[in-house]
Amino acid sequence: IYSCMGESVLKEILIVVISLLAAVAALLQMQKSTALTTGGFILNLQEVYNGNSDFLLIFLSCWEDFKGEERQCDLSEKRESIINYLTFFESIYIMMQEGCLNIQLLDELFGRRFFMVVNNKTVQDMELAVNSEYYTNIYKLYDIWKAHRIKQEKKEQKKNCRYTDALIHCYNENYKDLFD
Prior knowledge:
The chain is mainly alpha-helical. The chain is about 70% helix and about 0% strand. Helix 3 packs antiparallel against helix 4, helix 3 (about 80-95) packs across helix 6 and helix 4 crosses helix 6 (about 135-155).
């Protein structure tokens, strides 16, 4: 068909239409590729967290503190693991600032795990408070994340929604807000 058209205006229109369709197809393919890459990145991030048995031990010990139960381990003997845990979240803050992660996704994946540890009084006394100048990214992430959760709570307009609960502040002597 194309070769029979000669040098007509119809031929030029056909070229433009085909070019536009090709551009749209390429754009759609790029979007699908980006979504797959992001999904893979998120899964990898989850694997890194879940693959570190010390992270689970730190989280569970903080959870037990929160519940007033006996801890599986003494957090004061796990300083190196706590530092690694906090460094993981510092890296997440940097990835969020670079646009690799958004706060909504981050909250769904790691919200409770983050707040449970950084609001733990032992973790604060042992590491965050005494070395606060080295954890500026943790403090920045905390501030952004807390604001996000408060905003989500207001959106849901529920007094005791999961966002407030997950902040885990002022519940017992082992927990306090990082900025208190």
